[in-house]
Amino acid sequence: MTEDLVLPAPRDDDAPAPAAEPLLTVAGLKKHFPVKGGFPIRRTVGAVQAVDGLDLTVHVGESFGLVGESGCGKSTTGRLITRLMEPTAGTISYRGQDITHASRRQLAPVRSEIQMIFQDPYSSLNPRQTVGKIISGPMEINGINPPGGRETRVRELLEIVGLNPEHYNRFPHEFSGGQRQRIGVARALALEPKLIVADEPVSALDVSIQAQVVNLLQKVQRELGIAFLFIAHDLAVVRHFSQRVAVMYLGKIIEVGDRDSIYTRPRHPYTHALLSAVPEVSLDENRAGGRERIRLAGDVPSPINPPTGCRFRTRCWKATEKCATEEPPLVQISGNREGHLTACHFPEEPTIEGRAEDIVLDPALAALEDVATERPDDPAK
Ligand SMILES: Nc1ncnc2c1ncn2[C@@H]1O[C@H](COP(=O)(O)OP(=O)(O)O)[C@@H](O)[C@H]1O
Ligand code: SF4
Ligand SMILES: [Mg+2]
């Protein structure tokens, strides 16, 4: 008699995260870049309000997606959090410690725990250094000697990111774009970080490679328990990867919530517009799909002189006088799940039911997700 096959319980991605312990907390974060003008004496005539009062929390081991159109302040947010840039106002706390104005010396232990992966895998790797040197660089700078030596650790890291450990002595130009981004991931992992800020880590890659790198990052996040702030300009890329998602517009977060709330019950008109911008294909034929495509009128206004009240009002089809005079607070409005916050006076109805998994935002990317699991792109010859 054959015994019943016992399969492990499926991972329930919709289950609330156990004991959400804050790792990074950002409150009222602002970055205003001065605009100089005048002749012959140049003086400050205004400010680019790149980030203007941002509140967010990333929990231990969580993947948090930050999404918005180009120029809305995503990279600036990433640089402020990793302390590559000084904020104009606000606070950044890491593991309960205020690091907003920490000195270089005070920051040293935190620096190794927060790492960054950059958008461009071509310019972010030194072309004159071997892969071994690049990946062991952070260990060298921080005087870290892992058991077994740095070279052994680099080989291990190459294996984790799906590259051949024997390629230790090769140079970046010998690798493809996807492989270079894997090298960037290995470098970010070298100091065993607790948080990785990934600034559009797949935008510069061919669509055929994007899903492979996203899968690698997902593996790293789940298996090594590393929290991610994953920055992307489109909602399709973070859909599988992020447990919570924040949508940014002109320096502010306009909606934030768990993944299903953002993808299937969005309340902010801008989130609706972003979701409708790419063709939707419903996997569940019985479910009401076919979101109407919303074309946003006009360009993103200048962050030097943003609209009064709600910053989205110049492109919003629901805008009224109130929207021009009163800034809508980012709050949990009626009908939202706990933790789903929306900044809008006249939110959309929460009509679209379902699971984020069932909504395919970009058929090309989704098709790749099926074939790309765990298979690294072919190593360079
Ligand atoms: N160093 C800088 N000096 C002046 N303006 C800047 C600087 N860096 C970014 N900006 C401006 O800040 C705004 C936000 O930029 P950024 O954070 O790069 O946006 P995103 O990453 O979302 O595309 C843009 O208007 C950009 O031109
Ligand atoms: S507050 Fe007004 S302008 Fe802003 S998104 Fe809501 S309806 Fe549109
Ligand atoms: Mg950017």
List its traits.
single chain, 381 residues, alpha/beta, Rossmann fold, 2 domains, 11 helices, 13 strands, 21% strand, binds adenosine-5'-diphosphate, binds iron/sulfur cluster
SSE pattern: EEEHEEHEHHHEHEHEEHHEHEEH
Strand arrangement within the widest β-sheet reads 6-7-8-3-9-10-12
**Strand tally, please?**
13
CATH domain class name of the largest domain:
Alpha Beta
Give the distance, in angstroms, between the N- and C-terminal Cα atoms. 51 Å
User: How much helix is in the residues?
Assistant: 25-40%
The distinct ligands, each listed once, are:
adenosine-5'-diphosphate, iron/sulfur cluster, magnesium ion
Task: Indicate how many domains the architecture comprises.
Answer: 2
Give the CATH superfamily of the largest domain: P-loop containing nucleotide triphosphate hydrolases
What would you call the shape? globular
Shape-level CATH architecture of the largest domain: 3-Layer(aba) Sandwich
* Structural classification: alpha/beta
Q: How would you sum up the major sheet?
A: 7 strands, mixed
Gyration radius over CA: 22 Å
Uncertain spans: 1-12, 280-289, 367-381
Average pLDDT score: 85
Q: Please tally the helical runs, counting DSSP H or I stretches of 4 or more residues.
A: 11
GO molecular function: ATP binding; ATP hydrolysis activity
GO biological process, one term: transmembrane transport
Protein name: Dipeptide ABC transporter ATP-binding protein
Keywords: ATP-binding, Nucleotide-binding, Transport
